[in-house]
Specification:
Blueprint lengths: L6 E3 L8 E2 L3 E3 L12 E3 L3 E2 L8 E3 L1
Antiparallel strand pairs: 1-6, 2-5, 3-4
The structure holds zinc ion.
Zinc ion binds next to loops.
C-alpha cells in the first residue's frame, strides 16, 4: 500500500463534514414542523465523505 493519498475536499460539504440543515417552504407539506409551512431538515453527517471532509480522487 502506498501513501499516495489523493484526496480532495469533499465537494458536497466543502470540507465541513456535515450538511447544513435547510428550511424551505412547501405549500403542500401537511406536517406540523412549523406553523408557517416551512419544512426544515437537521444538520446531518455528509453522506459523500461520511464525515471525513475529504474524498479520494
Ligand atoms: Zn462531505
Amino acid at each position: 500500500m502506498s501513501q499516495q493519498a489523493n484526496t480532495s475536499v469533499c465537494p458536497t460539504c466543502q470540507g465541513k463534514k456535515v450538511i447544513d440543515g435547510v428550511c424551505e417552504t412547501s405549500g403542500e407539506w401537511q406536517g406540523n414542523d412549523t406553523d408557517d409551512g416551512q419544512v426544515c431538515t437537521p444538520d446531518q453527517t455528509c453522506p459523500t465523505c461520511n464525515g471525513s471532509g475529504v474524498v479520494e480522487d
